[in-house]
Amino acid sequence: MRLPICLSIIIGFLSCAVLCDKPILRGIDPSRAQLYANKNDKFTCFDGKKTIKYTQLNDDYCDCEDASDEPGTSACTNGRFHCVNPGHKSLVIPSSRVNDGICDCCDASDEYFSRANCINNCIELGSADRIREKQMAELVKNGNQIRLELSQKGKKQKEEQRLRMADLEKSRDQADKLREEKRQIKIDVENLESDALDVYRKAEDEIRKQREQEEAVNSRQEAEETFAKYDSNKDGKVDIIELQTRVVFDRNRNGEVEIEEARYFLDDNDALELEGFLTLAWPKMKPFLMLDSGLFKPPTRGDQPADEGEDGEEQEAHENNDDPAEEAELLNEETENVDEQHDENNEEEEDEEGHDDHDHEPEQQQPPPVQYDDETQRIIEEANEARNQYDVADREFRELDTELNNIRKVLEKDFGPEEEFAPLNGECFNFEDREYVYKLCMFDKATQQPKSGGSETRLGNWDGWRGNDYRQMLYANGAGCWNGPARSVMVDIDCGLDTRILSVTEPNRCEYNYRIQTPAACFTSSTNEVHDEL
Amino acid sequence: MRQFSLIFLLVISVIHTLAVDKNNFKTCDQASFCKRSRSVQHERSPFEVNIDTLIVNPNYINVDLTNKHNGQIFDLKLEGIKGNTFHFEIDEKSPLKPRYRVVDALKGEPTYEAIKVTATGSDITVKCGENKVIIYATPFKLEFYQNDVLTISANSKAKMHFEHLRRKQEAPPPPENENEQNENEAQDQNQDEPGTWEENFKSHHDIKPNGPSAVALDFTFHQANILFGIPEHADSFALKTTVGNGDPYRLYNLDVFEYELNSRMALYGSIPVVYGHGHKSTSGIYWQNAAETWVDIAGTASEQNVMESIVSFVAGSRQQDAPSAHFISESGIIDVFVVLGPSPNDAFKQYTALTGSGNLPQMFAIGYHQCRWNYNDQQDVMQVATKFDEHDIPMDTMWLDIEYTDSKKYFTWDHQKFPNAVEMMKNLTNMGRHLTFIIDPHIKRDSGYFFHNDCTDRGYYIKNKDGKDYEGWCWPGSASYPDFFDPEIRKYYADQYLLENFKENSRDTGIWNDMNEPSVFNGPEITMPKDNLHYGGWEHRDVHNLYGQMQLVGTFDGLLRRAENELRPFILTRAHFSGTQRYAAVWTGDNAAEWGHLEASIPMCLSLSVAGISFCGADIGGFFGNPETELLYRWYQTGAFIPFFRAHAHIDTKRREPWLYPDDVKLIIRDAIRKRYSFLPLWYTMFYEHERSGLPIMRPLLSQYPLDKNAYNIDNQFMLSDKLLIRPVMQKGASKVDVYFPSRNGDKQADIWYDIDDYRKIERVGVESVTVNTYKVPVYQRGGTIIPRKMRIRRSAILMENDPITLIVAVDSDKRAKGTLYIDDEKSFAYRQGKYLYIEFEFIDGVLSSQLIDETASYTTKVWLERVIIVGLDKVPSSATLRASNNQATQVDIIDASKTAFTIRKPGVSLMEPTWSITLNY
């Protein structure tokens, strides 16, 4: 007996849904109520596809594809329920939230047949909401005042910079002219200098050639002597066995000259006659013999203070090296490497510091001390003077040009619809969490530094605005992540009376999110309109 | 053809960026017991039965077995179990010390059945019901007959191997005769070879104080065409031949980083049950052993000859030997359950009758789970949950991975990130949602951590070979591992879940036990040394594959007691063994965002399902890497039809919540999730029926179509219960997929199928190419079934509790259909006290009727019948008449009639009605 009663309760309810408490209007926006007026006990779905009995409205069964017959129930998957929420803002929720046990409407109208005991708290919530909105409006209003000040300041800054730029352009053009003059003078004098020095240069060449020839003869002599020395059995050939007695060729220092080692020096031959020895073997042997006799010194730690660790490792590698060929190459390359490393270091510095005057550092290679005649000496001094003057003029020009470029870059930056972000340009703000200090230098960069010490990591460089409402900035191309992308920071901007970082999160590995507030983002609706037109 | 596939392989290997480091894991040759046992070759087995020693009991017999090569004597016990099942054990008659026996896998003592024994001079016959076993004495061999058909034999390939415990440098006993001397010597040499008394792997040394202790036995499946089972492997459902073709399938719970597909390598779980299936019958072997195990398969299609075998199947000529499985375990005893089917479902049921079925989960657990390593903080969790509402996508559970803890100390929270975890859980609950957080078994060695101090003071940690607390390396850094085999330790661990001990917890949070193989980053094969020591003095070697399960026993107990035994615990585990289904759901571990991994999720879950674990799923989207959008939505569509439905991602991947994609993609994902929710009444009913019957939820085609040889190897489509056929789209850029419609009789006799989206009818055997758009998941309802759905999709599953039911009645060729619906409170154990409704629907001769299956059960529900869609009738009725139990007739409308289906509009009857019917009026 119990069950049928329950059934009749449900059926009873359903009919109530149709008949009592104006349920047909349930979930309908009152302004659209006339669309649900009873016309001959029929209702046509808004899409016109179907006409149903008027009693099928809000009867908890979805008849219309467009859900128009069930505004007040959860029957249609695509339906919308309108809660009036007297005292508060009305709200439209998906039909699936009707009678699901969760109070979505403050007037409790969505839970008319549910286990949830929803209470109507629209008055309370509405007034709280209005207070919040008022506060928000107040905040935006006050913030907007500050924003306007910032805007003025920004515009002024820009104007000043424009003026400065005009001045600079003039000065730079003058400096450029001056530099041109000095360059011409320099070229003329240098031509004279060059002619004068030519005489000496030819003489030097002569001497050098002579010296080279002598060296070649000496070298051949030395090679022949060495050949004679190594050819212990005097058969006119130096062979592997003979070389194996020469401990100087024990490159891996294992106490014996192995066949491979000996063969290497014989250029992969078993034996070589004198001519072969001179062309193939000698060039290989020479560095080792020099090394052995102390004439040739590979670079030592003292020479490369910058790369001590690395150098140490390389040395170790040498000692363990079994292949004499590789070792010889390493020996030869070592000096070159030192230079290369220097160059690289210089380049890096240049990159970071921009246009510093490197060219005019003291010359690394001192010219050989040559005695010139008086006339030549005079020309050289004159040329030096011309070079100095050109350098001064050139530096002047470049300084002006750099400043001009910097200003141009600033002027090119988008500081908001009314330049309100301009005063923040270059300003830095910090935010600390448990592990890190996060920094944001506006329109420049974002960084992260561990509180436990350790170096700063670049999270991103100013990339630009995202969206078109000046609420989001991107700082991209930060330091690369291991096994991941380059770090980046998305900055979300709220209105606030001062500028600061509110929170920093890392929603994705190496993709950070800063939330900041600033009065520069306090746009009132009127400024928004201005902005929309932009 | 070959060249083409070579090129294809090359391309694959170039594209494939993630790869397992195989050097971290042993091959059979590197595991000395496997190498020794696998190479056993005898003309005839040295084991003989001493029939004189036979002792007959009402349910079992005992008889001695002698190894003629060394005189060792063993005890064979064989017993009959209800439901076409036999059990036998072989142990040493008088071992130097006891050998480990698995006691925690079975759900309880099996139900034994009377046996009848007859012995001759050469054999013993044990009859049990319609089945029998013949024990041949010389050489020893067992033959299992199902209804007089030889189904399974053991040791017919003479691979039996039993390394008796011995003292080091034990002198070999004198050989009994000249002929056997050579073989005998060979065997003893074997046992003194490197690896028998100590073993090295990479930098790890295993002291092996007990020396060799392997057990091995071969089983031949005389009626089978294919073998399947022995999860967990990332491989095809049908087992491949491994004899002469690489390593055997390995069962050893391991944390394999970036695991490889099409591999016989061990993974996170081990369930040593294998089934053989042929058109005459299905049978299975449950090799109950928790030590490292290898299974060498012969006589099935290997990768190389899969084409040939299909050809020979089709030609009906099977020239190969009957398929066989050679089980090799490192220690323990030979402990075997033989299930004789004869149908596939019979065999599956017989296995779960032994090891249990999964408990009916709470409704929320079969909804959609949103997981990621990691949701960073409280705000993050709430924001993600709120976004689901904003985009109107259902979601039931938010998950927290390891980062929520205070420095990886479980049972603590990081209060910087989660200042008020209780409030967070409450906020979720208020929106109809749940939280699941992770508790791993490794315990941070930190003197400021209560759990560590308690374990240290009370000696709760697993010991190393010297009896000191074992220290390994895992997420927290230096860590130790509680010995969950000790009931006292399990209780201590379970107590930590109680709200009085762990206040930042709630009665109803889910728990995720990960890394419980156990994973030890600096251990041999990323796990624990085998010479570690456990409760009872057992070596880790003996119990390894059970470790994770013993943690689950504790977790389950803790969650039960946390809610005064009222609420059904929800636990997810990575490691698993036989019986894990009684405690937890299982996911397939750390897969990758690749199409191949999406495909692998089906055979992997099918293998787990037939091995008792129905509540299975794979990480949607793939754990490692970033899925392309097409892969992601195809994965959602597939996952929506797999029992455990969770998205998860590695910490280094980009976020993939649906709204982060373009609208069109988001809407496809939303549609897939909502489809899942619309089928929740069916899912819930299937889970209930799984608990009740032990049958898997997700089934291979052969379970329903055992005669269709073409269906045996199909593992890119599957069935849910006997009702739905699912063929997910798992290929990039697919605009068509081939769906195979199976045969009822092995020939042309087809079932009728109806596309669930448009009720299109298919009645054929064979492959049909089906057009798919981005939204399409090819799913077919079998004619003859009735499926319950709920079409009002809410924010979460539990919010749909009172919503009305839609019945889809799909008729067979006789215009009949049947189905069931289960209803209860969706969360508590009250259903075990009869608080539920289990309803059967039947459609015959134009009448749909409903009655209660369990008339004594009752439950008060608001659920009513919203609509009935009748599919497959030729004629549309003019109206329908509802008759409820008060026998009043109510007229109901017929609407939305099409060529294939029509709808009975709003019968409105309460599903509490004990009986009702709807008659179609023409």
TrEMBL record, chain A:
Residues 1-20 form the signal peptide. One of its GO terms (molecular function) is calcium ion binding. GO terms for cellular component: glucosidase II complex. Residues 295-371 are annotated as: Disordered. It comes from Chironomus riparius. Residues 218-253 form the EF-hand domain. The lineage of its organism: Eukaryota, Metazoa, Ecdysozoa, Arthropoda, Hexapoda. It comes from the Eukaryota. Keywords: Calcium, Coiled coil, Disulfide bond, Endoplasmic reticulum, Signal. This is Glucosidase 2 subunit beta. GO terms for biological process: N-glycan processing. Residues 305-314, 322-338, 345-354 have a biased composition (Acidic residues). Residues 426-524 form the MRH domain. Residues 158-224, 376-403 form a coiled coil. Gene3D superfamilies: Low-density Lipoprotein Receptor (4.10.400.10), Mannose-6-phosphate receptor binding domain (2.70.130.10).
UniProtKB/TrEMBL annotation, chain B:
Residues 161-205 are annotated as: Disordered. Residues 76-296 form the Glycoside hydrolase family 31 N-terminal domain. InterPro entries: Gal_mutarotase_sf_dom, GH, Glyco_hydro_31_AS, Glyco_hydro_31_C, Glyco_hydro_31_N_dom, Glyco_hydro_31_TIM, Glyco_hydro_b. Residues 360-686 form the Glycoside hydrolase family 31 TIM barrel domain. Residues 1-19 form the signal peptide. GO terms for cellular component: endoplasmic reticulum. Residues 694-787 form the Glycosyl hydrolase family 31 C-terminal domain. It is found in: Endoplasmic reticulum. Pathway: Glycan metabolism; N-glycan metabolism. One of its GO terms (biological process) is N-glycan processing. GO terms for molecular function: alpha-glucosidase activity; carbohydrate binding. Its main location: endoplasmic reticulum. Residues 177-186 have a biased composition (Acidic residues). Pfam families: Gal_mutarotas_2, Glyco_hydro_31_2nd, Glyco_hydro_31_3rd. The keyword Nucleotide-binding does not apply. Keywords: Endoplasmic reticulum, Glycoprotein, Glycosidase, Hydrolase, Signal. PANTHER family: ALPHA-GLUCOSIDASE, BCDNA.GH04962. Belongs to the glycosyl hydrolase 31 family. This is Glucosidase II subunit alpha. It comes from Chironomus riparius.
